[in-house]
Design a protein that fits this description.
Strand order of the largest sheet: 3-2-1-4-5-7-6
Helix content: 40-55%
Number of strands: 12
Shape: globular
Structural class: alpha/beta
Order of helices and strands: HEHEHEHEHEHHHHHHEHHEHEEEHEHHE
Distance between the termini: 50 Å
Radius of gyration: 22 Å
């Protein structure tokens, strides 16, 4: 096994930014669950670690947006780190640095990360986007060990990953793609992708004459249509890793708990509200009190394929009064609020992993109207609404997820 431990390292990964990794977003996810966030107020100094930072674009953007923060990006691909450091220099950022390092080595000796909690240090936030189910289990265990060792008590660990059962169909593609790569011509790197896609499409038959495969996995045709060989770097990063293994939620949560990382929340904010589930699902799911089984039931019922889970190292629950005060002080600003229709009542429809959610115009309309007037705090918004604190939180989670509003960092 080489230095990459079976991870696909023959090309660099794509660059991108994911809003769910932002400190304010993670703080809000924690507050929804009544947990005290790592920062007392917006604008407070903090330390942030990204494990598997890739090309560094997302972390550099976070550093530029949060001058009060100190950021560290870890990746074992030297091409990624070289690009990230070059980007950092061009942007003249002084609050972010990048380190070429291996999770297995860091699990043995985390000192390159800086002073840990035992020495008055540690990170307020640790993030690992997507990679937990792309690496072999020993590397995955090292990832969780490093996250735990790096976090200060009360710190948040963001871990997003591919989940079952939503990836069951694409496991057929991954298996065929791996076999095609084993016999491929290096001069035609996209050939295995095209052959695997075409081979599976041929095995589906047609809508009029479906095969057993199409009957068993009706979603597969749509999954294959979404695979674009021209997105070569992304698809290799997604499917070409020898350790590729989507997990059921209970398996990953149990592995994290073995490293003192307690499941707390979700950064996919609407998923924090089980009441948004279809009415037919609420009975069996609400009756289940075991959290691992309950989350598994939800994922099975909604055919979940991706999770953005938030874990905490050391619970710090807030009193109801403190939680309401902390949430009420949050600043919000309008981004892309829906415009009023020329005729008829407005429609408030949200696409979530639980299905489409239809909001009552009598409830959602006044909230949108107040937000349209400009930035405000949650307390100010509640003052112009008839909704309880819990109901308003759910509405705001839907608005944030839809990109209608964002957090106002000027309210510090």
């Amino acid at each position: 096994m080489g230095w990459d431990h079976g991870y696909y390292s023959h090309s660099t990964y794509t660059s991108g930014f994911f809003r769910e990794l932002a400190p304010a977003w993670l703080d809000f996810a924690a507050l929804i669950k009544g947990h005290c966030p790592p920062r007392a107020v917006e604008g407070q100094a903090f330390q942030y670690l990204e494990l598997g930072c890739g090309m560094g674009f997302g972390l550099c953007l976070q550093a530029a947006l949060h001058p009060e923060g100190t950021f560290l990006g870890i990746d074992f691909n030297p091409d990624h780190i070289s690009h990230a450091e070059g980007l950092c220099r061009r942007l003249a950022l002084t609050n972010v640095r990048f380190l070429e390092a291996d999770f297995l080595a860091l699990a043995e000796d985390p000192s390159p990360l800086g002073p840990g909690p035992a020495f008055g240090g540690g990170f307020h936030y640790v993030a690992a986007h997507g990679i937990a189910t792309w690496v072999r289990e020993p590397v995955q265990q090292a990832l969780f060990a490093v996250a735990s060792a790096a976090l200060r008590p009360g710190g948040l660990f963001y871990c997003s990953y591919n989940t079952q059962p939503g990836w069951l169909g694409r496991t057929t593609f991954q298996q065929l793609y791996a076999l095609e790569r084993s016999r491929s011509d290096p001069a035609d790197p996209k050939g295995p992708l095209r052959r695997a896609i075409a081979g599976l499409q041929a095995l589906l038959g047609t809508a009029e004459q479906p095969t057993a495969l199409r009957h068993a996995i009706p979603q597969l045709e749509e999954d294959l249509a979404g695979l674009d060989p021209d997105q070569f770097d992304y698809l290799c990063g997604e499917f070409a890793n020898e350790g590729w293994q989507p997990l059921y939620v209970a398996d990953l949560h149990q592995r994290c708990q073995a490293h003192k990382l307690h499941p707390l929340a979700t950064a996919t904010l609407p998923e924090a509200f089980d009441q948004l589930l279809a009415p037919s699902l609420k009975g069996p799911i609400f009756a289940e009190v075991n959290p691992l089984i309950r989350q598994t039931l939800i994922d099975l019922a909604t055919y979940k394929s991706f999770r953005r889970d938030v874990f905490v190292k050391g619970l710090d629950p807030l009193t109801l009064q403190d939680a309401e005060q902390r949430i009420g002080a949050l600043g919000l600003r309008p981004l892309q609020l829906p415009s009023a229709p020329a005729e008829g009542p407005p429609s408030f429809t949200f696409s979530t992993s639980f299905g489409q959610v239809q909001g009552d115009p009598a409830v959602y309309g006044p909230i949108v109207d107040r937000l349209a007037e400009g930035a405000c705090t949650v307390s100010e918004l509640q003052g112009s609404s008839d909704q309880s604190a819990g109901e308003l939180l759910m509405v705001l989670a839907l608005f944030l997820d839809a990109g209608w509003i964002g957090f106002d960092r000027s309210r510090q």
